[in-house]
Specification:
With 246 residues, the protein is mainly α. The protein has helices at residues 2-12, 19-40, 46-68, 88-110, 119-125, 130-160, 165-179, 189-214, 218-236, 239-245.
């Protein structure tokens, strides 16, 4: 029933990628994560429930994207990878380090007790088994970048380009940054946003610029992967090591 309704919607829109396609993909991810998280909490602990929920988000988004490609040109999204793209992992690491140092004074001022709380980040930091750690890191470093780049730099950036490259770059980056506020702790939302939003906005701008320059998603995917890789690595460090660094 649900798929039939989606197919009717697909046939009614242009073959060009649009903001409505982005919203459908985003809603597919929201539905996937909500359903699987609700089903998994009854039988799994919090860590594995988060893994299942993330899988539901990615499967939901990619599933809707796959259905849409039956009516649109998938090549327009630019989901292609070349051998040299692997080097962008290093650039992602460097960008993450540079922006973390830039935001460090504000972060320490607003959160003297530590970094802004984020649900998934806390689960990664508290993962008590190697299997759970591997699953969370794989989701953050592989599935997350591929899915998000397809959504934000593939579909959304492509859809907005008709209004100008600069407009598309700015708006897609802002949407990307704001979408990540959903993972912040509600009790410290404003303080967390002040620390988290600027780096995410800059990351979004860099990823969008790379996509516009190369005409495909490979460089952005690997840079995004490098960014997430460093975050995951830091979260997996022992607490006493992090205290010494801080």
């Amino acid at each position: 029933m649900g798929r039939g309704v989606l197919e009717v919607v697909c046939r009614s829109v242009s073959r060009s990628w649009s903001v409505y396609d982005f919203l459908l993909i985003w809603l597919g991810g929201l539905l996937g994560t909500t359903v699987l998280f609700a089903l998994s909490t009854a039988s799994l602990d919090e860590g594995w429930a988060i893994v299942v929920a993330l899988a539901g988000q990615y499967v939901g988004s990619l599933g809707v994207f796959w259905i849409l490609t039956r009516y649109k040109n998938a090549k327009d999204v630019g989901l292609t990878i070349e051998g040299g793209d692997f080097a962008y992992i290093g650039l992602g690491l460097i960008l993450q380090i540079g922006l973390a140092l830039l935001m460090w004074p504000l972060s320490k001022l607003l959160f003297p007790e530590g970094r802004p709380p984020q649900e998934v980040a806390e689960v990664i930091a508290g993962a008590d088994t190697a299997a759970l750690q591997v699953a969370l890191v794989a989701a953050a470093v592989v599935l997350g970048p591929v899915t998000e780049e397809m959504m934000y730099r593939g579909v959304l950036l492509k859809a907005l380009t008709s209004r100008g490259k600069v407009f598309a770059l700015l708006v897609s980056s802002a949407v990307f940054a704001l979408a990540h506020l959903t993972g912040l702790d509600t009790d410290t939302m404003l303080r967390s946003a002040a620390v988290v939003l600027p780096p995410l906005l800059i990351l979004g701008l860099v990823l969008a610029w790379l996509t516009q320059r190369h005409g495909r998603l490979g460089p952005a995917i690997f840079l995004h992967s490098g960014w997430n890789l460093l975050s995951a690595f830091v979260l997996l460090l022992p607490a006493d090591v992090l205290e010494q660094v801080g």
